[in-house]
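#lab-general

N.A. 3:47 PM
ok so I finally got the sequence cleaned up, no stray characters, all 49 residues accounted for. can someone with queue access submit it? mine expired

B.Y. 3:52 PM
send it over

N.A. 3:53 PM
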Amino acid sequence: KGQRTPQEVVAAWMNSPGHRANILNKNYTHIGVGFEENGYIWTQQFIRK
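B.Y. 4:20 PM
back already:
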C-alpha cells in the first residue's frame, strides 16, 4: 500500500521526477492534497490563480 504519513508521501513525491516538477513549478500558486486512509492513497491538485 501507499505511504502512511505526510512526511513519507512528500519524500516520495520529491523523489519522483514528474511529481517534483509539478511541486516546484512556479506557475502553480495553490495545491490541494487528498488522502484516503483505507488504501493509503494520496492525490494532488495544482492550481494557478
